[in-house]
Amino acid sequence: MSMQVSTLNKFSLAARLSFVAVIVLGGATFFAVNTLQQQQNTRSNASLAANTIANPGFESGTGSWQFNKRSGSASYQVTSNTKVSGNSSAQITVTGASTAPQEIELAQYGQSVTAGQKYTFSFWAKSSNNRTIDVVLQDANSPFAVFVRKTVPLTTNWQQFTQTFTAPQSRSNMLIGLQFANSTGTVWIDDVVFSSEVQALPTATNVPASPTSTQTTLSVDKTSVARGGQITATWSNIPNPSAQDKIGLYAPGQPDGSPIGFVYVSCSQTATVARAAGSCTYTIPTTVPLAQAELRLHAAGTNVVLAKSSVFTIYSNTPTPNLTLVPTAITTVAPTTIPTRTVTPASGHTTMQTTLKLHGLGKGGDSANPNSMGNFNLQRPQRIVTMEIFDVNNQLVATKQGPVSFNTTNGNFVGTIDLGTQFSTGQYTVKVKTDQHLRGLVPGIQTIASGQNIQLQSLTLVSGDVNNDNQINIIDYNFLMGCYSDLSPAVSCAAGNKQKADLTDDGDVNQFDYNLFVRELSNRSGDESDGTPQPTPTRAPTVVPTSVPSPVPTATTGRSLLKPATTYTTYGNLRYSNASPRLLLDLYVPDSGGPAPLIIYVHGGSWSTGSKDKSCLIKQQAPNMIYKGFAVACINYRLLDEASFPAQIEDVKGAIRFLRANAATYKIYGNKIGIWGSSAGGHLSALAGTIGGVTQYDTGLNLGVSSSVQAVVDDFGPTDFLAFAQTPGIQPTQVALGTRLLGCDILSPECEDEARAASSVTYVTPDDPPFSILHGTKDNTVPLSQSQLLYDALRAKNVPVNFTIVQGMGHGGLPTYAPARIEELSTFFDLLLR
Predict the structure, then answer these.
(1) Are 542 and 564 in contact (CB under 8 A)?
(2) Nearest-angstrom CA–CA distance, 801 and 768
(3) 42 CB-side CA count, 13 A
């Protein structure tokens, strides 16, 4: 069917409303009446409706509408040169985009709604380019419950968008907001309406009664599911479905509104259809407890439960990391020699019948859940074990090796170790070790009779000892990451190391091995614990802070210092230097009794903006890190409007010294400190890592303590300013920032000394601490080559370093703080700060 535009514009309003294109975003239905080049003097239906909004047509200025600009660059005005009706419309010009649409918002407060009442919100809009805006209706008071949030597509033609919803709760002060910051360009808004809608009763018809129930239902397709696995939720009869309806994952008995995780019933927060009935597959979060769980269905913006699923069991943890990993090169360790399999013992020989439960394999469990199931399809169903036998004086009297074989029925390894004919009758203790697993002590004192077959009690061994040195530490981590090949080909896996790093014995070094390694970290040293499994860590109770400082360890213990906590204490605005009024830090310490390992976070902002209060991005993750047992410090440093380099690194080193000097006061572990920063903060963190022994930058207070750090995370920071300024395609603004930082023309030969002095690659030495580096492939601010240069310099000096390249990421983004990376960095810091 074809129709001239001019003909369409001459139709009556009712006729034009019949030409409705349904646009569905975020699961909510907006009806767009697209009249293409609508005549300027045609009034919209909005102007004729009984509306409850002050100044809906923007005819007399902004009226009660409020323009909120929190970041970026934008302007707002009422203009008369483009409109739907009347004399004017609101015009918003965005010249600097943000990832958060609400950073630039046109809003009106003071609207009221009544629970159960149906309301309609509509407006006309167009844009200078094809783009989207967000529309939100939410409570303007805490807890700021969102009734509607929609993403709306705009074109260069006027369209009307209408949303009808039923208020789940009564509210007297609701906010209506149009949010624009997600894209640049100019947007025009006109004829806004927010009104109650009175529904007529339906006319009765002679339709036979249906036996179908109208009760809302929610069901699941499984009675048990692996952590990281998938479960399908099916729902029906949702009243007034919205894409913001959500399904929460709960432990039975957990209060409504405090779920472990959410899935939106449209299967995605940005899905295109909201359905009264349907199903979607949900990935169980990797951090949930291994216990019983249920799903509960919530109406949009509320904690009201419409339906519950049956209870199911979560039994294991196998998530896939969501970052592209470029593993670290590692030193080859000679493989363990496997002797020829022992034949059936001859008569007169003393033998030991052994049953082993190996973590991650069969029914061996793991440190997080001793009853979890591991891999049954093993590449190596036979293992060689080493048995050490000690007398009552704890003197080693015999070391024997022998085979054990995997029993696919009971999921354990069983075998016989031949002690020979010379073994003396007596009482002994027995320790057992196999490759990839820590040595374990067989429970109890063993009475061994010469020439007899002795049945030993079953023994469980902890996995993760990749290099077979009877410890789990950063060396094993580097082996594992060097051979990691789940998301990208392993680039530094020496021959023979793949089998060692394949903890789950499935033929590949992948996410299953990585996650098993993380779960095994509650048992880290076979020499200290004899490999006997330790209880699963639990959250510590809240501890009321006291004025009595806890003692700080004076030596590395080899065991983790992490003590999980549920609350933490904030020490705000601690002055660490007198060089500037700006030099303050905030310290967050878990209430677990301490001492807690410390991570210092250095904010970014091109050395010219940002602060510990507004730019400490780790604060989004701080509760996660603190609840794990880390103390987190966010620091200020002098910006370029106050001082050029080296003031910034002097400040960072000053903060390190202050925290180390006052470790006992704040119940933190001062012997070893980690540092983490992004962009300009990444530059300063990397520099702090390589410049620890350079005392010329130690100025100010606490000069009697060290300013070195023992672990560094550098997220996309500059590392070599000479190379940075000469990178093809580098933005002139970035070169100018480098010039401001150095206090000289970065492109001038006379500035080379200053450029080298500010570059972390200049100071790399073999005794530098381990690094973890992250960078995106589409970073147009700091080139990816900057991180590559630091990585190459560290590897040339044999400094442990893991380099993560995120495909498609620009200068920062969500992958920087993705849950999988937070877990990875938690492991990284935990292994190094003990």
Answers:
(1) no
(2) 10
(3) 19
Closest CA to 623 of 826, 827, 774, 832: 826
Query: Residue 632, Cα to own-chain centre: how many angstroms?
Result: 16
Whether the model pTM is above 0.70: no
Half-sphere exposure of 212 (CA within 13 A, CB side): 7
Q: Where are the alpha helices (DSSP H) in 520-632?
A: 526-529, 622-628
Span 60-115, pLDDT tens digits: 555 567 787 776 677 777 787 777 766 778 888 888 888 778 888 888 877 788 87
Looking at residue 43, the DSSP 8-state letter turns out to be: P
Q: What is the pLDDT of residue 730?
A: 81
SS3 per-residue string spanning 501-526: HCCCCCCCCCHHHHHHHHHHHHCCEH
Rounded distance between C-alpha atoms, residue 175 and residue 497, angstroms:
59
pLDDT in tens, 317-364: 433 333 333 333 333 333 333 333 334 445 678 998 999 999 999 888
Mean residue pLDDT across the chain: 76
CA 630 to each of CA 3, 527, 593, 763, 833: distance values in angstroms, whole numbers, following the listed order: 67, 25, 12, 28, 10
Chain CA centroid to CA 827, Å: 13
- Distances in whole angstroms, Cα of residue 505 to Cα of each of 137, 307, 328, 461, 499: 52, 42, 21, 15, 8
SS3 742: helix
Confidence tier at 523 by pLDDT (50, 70, 90) = low
> pLDDT digit string (tens) for 768-821?
999 999 998 888 889 999 999 999 999 888 888 888 888 888 888 777 877 778
Residue 226 to residue 219: CA distance in whole angstroms? 18
Listed in sequence order, the residues at least 6 apart from 485 whose beta carbon sits closer than 8 Å to its beta carbon are 493, 508, 509, 510
Tens digits of per-residue pLDDT, 136-162?
Answer: 888 777 667 777 888 888 888 888 777
Distance of alpha carbon 116 from alpha carbon 552, whole angstroms: 59
CA 48 to chain centre: 49
Residues facing 95 on adjacent strands:
none
Rounded to 5 degrees, φ, ψ at 697 are -100, 5
In the structure encoding, which two tokens stand for residue 775, read together?
């960078």
Q: What is the DSSP string of 350-413?
A: EEEEEEEEETTBTT---SS-TT---B-S-S--EEEEEEEEE-TT--EEEEEEEEEEEETTTTEE
- Kindly give, in sequence order, each residue whose CB lies less than 8 Å from that of residue 738, ignoring residues fewer than 6 positions away: 718, 721, 724, 725, 746, 755
Write the DSSP assignment of 96-153 as a string of letters: S--SSGGGEEEEEEEEEE-TT-EEEEEEEEEESSSEEEEEEEEESSTT--EEEEEEEE
Side-chain-side CA neighbours of 438 within 13 Å: the count stands at 29
Interacting residues of 420 by C-beta distance below 8 A, sequence separation 6+: 349, 350, 400
